[in-house]
Amino acid sequence: MKKLTFMLLWLTTVMAMANDGVFFVNGNQLVPLKETDVAVTKEVLTISLCDDGTALVDVQYEFTNRGKAKMVDMGFEAAAPYNAGEDTFQPTKGHPYIFNFTVEMNGQVLPYKNGVTASGEEGESDLTPLDLNQWRVPNPNEDIEDYGCTLINKNTKESVNFSYVYYFQAYFKEGKNTVHHTYRYTMSYGVMRTFEVPYWLTPALRWANNQIDDFTLRIRADKTAKYFGVSSSLFQGAPWVVKEGVGKVRTKRFDEENSYVEVTLRNGMVEWHKKAFRPSENLNIVSVDNYQYLEEGEKPLGWYYDRSDTFWPMLDSETASAEQKRIMRNLPYAHRGYVFKDKGLQAYFNKFWWYMPDPSWKQDTSDFTKREWKYVNGNW
């Protein structure tokens, strides 16, 4: 491949490190199982990045049925967990890391059934359900590369990667139809990224108009601070705008072909809006732990998240200097925009792009997490 995605460049090429990770789920569009006359007129996709390690997805659709009223078979596909470290196979209960899944159409809640399907490329499965009488979960002692997201045919011994599917029927009246879709899922994480939120956008091209006529993406960080990047090649032709709270956006370029949009938010929302949107690739929201290392150099610590037991750059409590420990204790305050009276600390945090001074912050620590209190108290 001549062109690497920003993720491959970011996590593999530049850092030249292993890309081990835990992938819980990929979000997806609602897609028709058959060709229809229904077009996606409007979509507002809101993804909230939460401090409990989950992402909340809220999608508002407007569809236009250009033909007669009809019942359409629909599905929602989510990739099986990879490297999750436990047996999570539950085909009749839905994805083990998706919670509170709902679909409401024209004001009515739609019932759904769960199943599994053979995975295609990202979002390209035909959603045909697998007959689970013919397929089984691999044994732990079998040499299976993708253990946890693979099934074995009981007769042929063929192996396939699989996805979970939520199947339902939707009655499209003539003209305009509205759909409200919500769910929460566990964010993925891995080497040099403390959270990752993949979301398949390309299945939207299956609808009659092969595009989303009016598309809005909103990424939220409510009552928290988040620092992340998304591929810039996907979002061309319109600006990113901070609509709520405090935040900054910039585009960072690695070389002539690879760049990404970098966002820092504090209790806010960033938005991207475009007409006639035809996604050429899928969305991936990734924490920029590793970019912090590349941009700022090996400073004591520039950013951390409360998602996992590690942060980057790593700070060893036994070997860290007194200054490093002091910086660590003050990070939760810096993330909230505290203006330090200590000139040394203020000069240090001013060097970081993500730091957004807020003289009005009243040092309210009620939203500090348990992890942050450990940092503040020097007990990490």
What would a concise description of this structure say?
This protein has 380 residues and is mostly beta strands. The protein is 12% helix and 41% strand.
Describe the structure in your own words.
The relative contact order is 0.17. The protein is mainly beta. It contains five helices and 19 strands. The protein folds into two domains: 6-292, Immunoglobulin-like; 315-376, Methane Monooxygenase Hydroxylase, Chain G, domain 1, CATH 1.20.58.1690. The protein starts with 5 loop residues before the first helix and ends with a helix. Helix 3 (322-335) runs antiparallel to helix 5 (370-376). The strands form two sheets. Strands 1, 2, 4, 5, 7, 8, 13, 14, 15, 16, 17, 18 and 19 form a 13-stranded mixed sheet that branches.
Number of separate strands? 19
- Helix/strand/pairing class, anyone? mainly beta
The main sheet comes to:
13 strands, mixed
Q: If you average the pLDDT, what whole number results?
A: 80
Overall CATH architecture of the largest domain: Sandwich
Beta-strand percentage range: 35-45%
**What's the number of structural domains?**
2
The SSE string, one letter per element, is: HEEEEEEEEEEEEEEEEEEEHHHH
| Low-confidence spans | 1-19, 290-314
Main CATH class of the largest domain: Mainly Beta
Distance between the termini: 43 Å
Helix percentage: 10-25%
Count of helix runs:
5
Q: What Rg is obtained from the alpha carbons, in whole angstroms?
A: 22 Å
Principal-axes shape call? globular
Q: Any idea of the CATH topology of the largest domain? A: Immunoglobulin-like
